[in-house]
Amino acid sequence: MKTRREILSLSAVAALGLAAPGSAALAKPQSQTSSTGDTPRWGMVIDLRKCIGCQACTVSCSMENAVPVGNHRTVVSTYEIQTDDGPGQAVLPRLCNHCENPPCIPVCPVEATFQQKDGTVVIDAEQCVGCGYCVQACPYDARFINKQTGVADKCTFCVQRVGVGLLPACVETCVGGARVFGDLRAEDSAVTKLIRNHKVDVLRPHMGTRPQVYYIGLDDRLQDRVEAESGSRQLRNQDAQQES
Predict the structure, then answer these.
(1) In angstroms, rounded to a whole number, what is the distance separating the alpha carbons of residues 112 and 123?
(2) Helix or strand (DSSP H, E) at 181
(3) How many other β-carbons are positioned within 10 Å of the β-carbon of residue 44?
């Protein structure tokens, strides 16, 4: 077990956008073709049992993608919840879900938002007019209008990194190894094995978007918590009201 000093040290390394030792071995995409020779279908599994809420992913993503201060392509929200043993803490890392049925695409009047063959949903910044329709259509609060560029912005699974065989910045710097990225079409990929061997959930499944970001250990009370919230006591308050 790592000491608090070791964890903080790793967090500092991650916050600088550097890979924590051994983190790149989690599920490194080697190329733009899957093990079967087909185009991969990129996806992510987030193991909430390993997430410590350090925000290293948020910082590294912002540095890698030059995200303006006050905006986030990924963020970890923290909640105080009531457990059988009393008050407890729950974390929820959030990002674009790169859905199979993305509602952000059909609402774009200039077709600036589109889906690549590998499933990644991206934005053509030169085509985007900044109307914000896609921001409103996303049921996961995963999009924003970049105040520096004036166009829509969001997580892209770090296409610039994945295209050259690197992991997304958030995965590369995850201190606890909670984020695992890989090809969902490959039977031997780390993400496929995790989905096969664990109970996984997605956010807001009733929306019919078929998210491709899966969670292990997701509290049912968090399944609809899609707003980018920092520390919150709201869930605990809701629990107390339900018991009274």
Answers:
(1) 6
(2) strand 179-183
(3) 27
What ranges do the domains of the chain cover? 4-100+156-243
DSSP 104-173: TTTT-TT--EEE-TTS-EEE-TTT-----HHHHH-TT---EE-TTTSSEE---S-HHHHTTTPPPHHHHT
Read off the pTM.
0.81
How many angstroms separate the CA atoms of 79 and 230, rounded?
8
Can you tell me the distance from the alpha carbon of 134 to that of 73, in angstroms, rounded to the nearest whole number? 15
| Beta-bridge partners for 87 | 82
Report strand pairing: 213-216 vs 42-47: parallel
Q: Which two tokens stand for residue 181?
A: 């990225």
Angstrom distance (rounded) from CA 80 to CA 181: 28
Between the CA of residue 112 and those of 65, 73, 122, what are the distances in Å? 19, 18, 8
In a 13 Å sphere around the CA of 76, the CA atoms on its Cβ side amount to 23
State which amino acid sits at residue 27.
A
Summarised one tens digit per residue, pLDDT across range 141-182 is 999 999 999 999 999 999 999 999 999 999 999 999 999 999
DSSP states of 199-244: -EE-S-GGG----SEEEES--GGGTT--S---SB-HHHHHHHHHH-
- Architecture per CATH, domain 4-100+156-243, reads as 2-Layer Sandwich (3.30)
Report pLDDT digits (tens) over 24-60: 323 334 345 545 568 999 999 999 999 999 999 999 9
